[in-house]
Amino acid sequence: MPIHAVYGGNVKNAARIQALAALVFLGVGGFLAGCKPAPELTQDQAKAMIQAKYDKDPGTVFNIAVDDIGMQKGVHANLWTGVKRYPNGYWGDFKLTPEGMKAIKLPSGGDTIQWHPDTPKDPRYSVVVVPLVTCKLKARSVGDVQTLADNRTVAYMEDVDLSSLPASLQDIVQNPFNKLSTQRVATFTLTNGAWTLDSIR
Predict the structure, then answer these.
(1) What is the enclosing helix (H) or strand (E) of 102?
(2) How far, in Å, CA of 119 to CA of 91, rounded?
(3) Tell me, what DSSP letter sits at residue 2?
(4) What is the pLDDT of residues 65-110, one digit of tens each?
(5) How would you label 58-96 residue by residue, b for 16+ Cβ within 10 Å and e otherwise?
(6) CATH 3.40.50 corresponds to the domain 39-60+134-201
(7) DSSP letters along 108-163, please?
(8) What pTM was estimated for this model as a whole?
(9) Domain ranges of the chain
(10) What is the DSSP string of 182-197?
């Protein structure tokens, strides 16, 4: 076999290998160019998206549990007034005043709160009243942004915003029966190159 045939074959093979390597390099380069890094999601951005959702929501009715001190506050605020006292000395019926009817209603309907605890000053006893206006939610204390697979998550505190309630109800609601704050976790997904709020749990 002539020498030039051997070398010619090697040269052709080398050229093919170089061409293939160039194609592979271009393919990898194109793939890497298409995999742009995800944009940063900051705590402020996460909080803004969560709060925007809360602001858009119509609000929710926050049922208020009223304890013994709250019942006294309601009398002083002219929301209800005592109409019956029972022989045991610590049961009583309280009727909503016209002012009270503008602010609350009772879950069972009617206009009379039946205060019938098991013992005097029973710390476990409460009754529920329902405000006639809804409450919004607020996000606070947003934690560090965490990476979860392709998503991002943040833990934060969700507070019930009582500012829509009359001042008298805002005062009455301040007792251990009413849960005004809840820890939540929000999940964000990347949509068309931008972070969007996916879910809250």
Answers:
(1) none
(2) 9
(3) -
(4) 999 999 999 999 999 999 999 999 999 999 999 999 999 999 999 9
(5) eeeebebbbbbebbebbeebebbeeeeeeeeeeebebeb
(6) no
(7) T-SSEEEE--SSTT-TT--EEEEESS-BEEEEE-----EEETTEEEEEEEEEEE-T
(8) 0.77
(9) 1-36, 39-60+134-201, 63-132
(10) EEEEEEEEEETTEEEE
